[in-house]
Task: structure prediction
Amino acid sequence: MSKEVSIVGAGASGIFSAILCAKAGLNVTVYEQNTKIAKKILVSGNGRCNISNKNLSSSDFYSQNPSFVEFALQSFPFNSFEKFCNEIGLFLNVLDDGRAYPHSNEAKSVVKIFEDYALSLGVVFHTNTDITDIKKLLKESDAVIVATGSRAGEHLGGNADGEEFAKEFGHTSIPAYPSLVQLHLNFKHCKKDEVE
Ligand SMILES: Cc1cc2nc3c(=O)[nH]c(=O)nc-3n(C[C@H](O)[C@H](O)[C@H](O)COP(=O)(O)OP(=O)(O)OC[C@H]3O[C@@H](n4cnc5c(N)ncnc54)[C@H](O)[C@@H]3O)c2cc1C
Result:
């Protein structure tokens, strides 16, 4: 019998994990507290979704564990990601500086393609479902993946649930702080678009 995997959070990482697990033959259910999946992807890259970067390297990351960053980038380099995207019909436009966007230039097409692909593999999404008891969910499943994201973008569903769940299993977490923030200027000669 196929194993049951529950995934908490239907953001980029939850949806991608769901696809990988379903491709491996597992039964996958994704729980999302919002009414819709992938709200954060929809606003990414100003609605265009700067989905990856061809020139990514470990020097682009701040980390106390650089070897993990190295491992992650080597395990799934840009070329593998681009190949995967091509296979599911998500064609990328790679700019001269390495930034990659969907050909459509629309984040919503990224969400639609990933969602449709996940559904075609049998992934079940339960939206409007806030998971509060992670141990109960683990009892009901063979495995649970916590993909609840960070606190960034509270209006999009950002919270610290992942850290709380991790604590329940005895993990500690390194304090997080914002690293990419908006600038609000009180300067009448500088328009919003010029600042961005
Ligand atoms: C304005 C903005 C622009 C950005 N632009 C870019 C960009 O162009 N390129 C780029 O690479 N990155 C961009 N990012 C960053 C990128 O969007 C995030 O790194 C990425 O979406 C994080 O994905 P995630 O799956 O880890 O988390 P999230 O997208 O936060 O997904 C986590 C999900 O879990 C759900 N959840 C949380 N707790 C629970 C619970 N207890 N029960 C059920 N569901 C729960 C949340 O509602 C959420 O949907 C941007 C971010 C922002 C805010």
Notes: Strands lie at 4-8, 27-31, 52-53, 92-94, 99-102, 124-126, 143-146. The radius of gyration is 18 Å. The pocket of flavin-adenine dinucleotide is lined by residues 8-14, 31-34, 39-41, 43-45, 49-50, 130-131, 147-149, 152-153, 157-159, 161 (CB under 6 Å).
